[in-house]
Each structure stands twice: as C-alpha cells, then as structure tokens.
Amino acid sequence: MFAPPPGLLGDQEEAVRQQMQMQGLLGLAAGLFQAGTPSRTPVSLGGSALQGLAAGQQAAQGTFDQTLKAMQLRQQMADTKEKKDREQKMREAIAGSYRMVPTAQGVANTQSNIDPALLEGMSAEQVVAASPMTRTMDRDKLLSAIAEFAPEKYLELTKDREPKETYRVLTAEEKKQ
Length: 177
Fold this sequence. Notes:
- The chain has 8 helices and 2 strands.
- The chain has helices at 13-35, 45-95, 104-113, 116-120, 124-130, 139-149, 151-158, 172-176, and strands at residues 98-102, 133-137.
- The longest helix is centred in the middle third of the chain and has 51 residues, at 45-95.
C-alpha cells in the first residue's frame, strides 16, 4: 500500500519500504482516531476512512522524502570528498614537478670561496651539495600532472607544441654520406 517507486533507492529499497509502511499505518491509525473524535458535524464511515488514508499517505510520503534527501546529501558529501581528494593529489603531483638544483654561478662561487686545501679533499658532489640551490620545474612532469588531472587544459597547453624529435636507424646508403 505504501511503497517507494521500484528501483529508485537501490539496496535500501526494502528498508525504506518497511519504514514507509510503518509510518503510513501509523498515519492511517492517527487519521482514523482523529475522525472518530466527537464533532459538531457528523462524519461518515467513508469520510473517516478517507481522512485516515490521506494521513497515512502523507506520513509515508514524508518518510520517502526524508530518505531521498538523506541519500542526496550523502551523495553530495561523497562527491565533495572525492573532489577534495583529487585536488590534493593534483597539488602533490604539481609539487613533485619542482626540484632544487645548484646554479652554475653558485658552484663557481662555492669553489672560489672554499679554502683551496679543503677544496682538494672534496669530491665534485660535495662541492655541488655545498652550493646555493635554486628551484626549477621539470616541464614534462608538470605536463604529465596536468594531463592526468585536467586533460582539457593539457590539450590547450600543448596544441601548438612541436612534437619531440624521433630517431630512426640509418640505412647503409645514408651512413655512407
């Protein structure tokens, strides 16, 4: 008698159907009790039944509406969480496209500022590590992150980009030239 439209609520349909029936029957009972109370105008049995059914239908519909709103809210919350997680991954991917590298001038200055006796005992890696660093971007990593999280923006950024040079094996005739 009081049931949700089939297929709309998925795996929760049976629980919602039971809840709607329970609320509908309670509403029906409340409507019948109210129709049976003393009144200045007489109410027929059919009028009482109609009033009870209307109250039951209203209670069942209220349950359905509440369930639907709760499901929509859960879906919105899940969508928002998914969007935030995706944005966080995108920020991490973009941050991963930056790295610290020494500048040529910084390495030269470090070599000239270190005591020559101390410099003799240092490896090239130690000199570079002691040099001032600057932040640089790996363009390919950045484009890869953009391609993953915003494909339409990637296409816009790379539409005029020259394709990478490709190599092929030279033929014997080309080798002679």
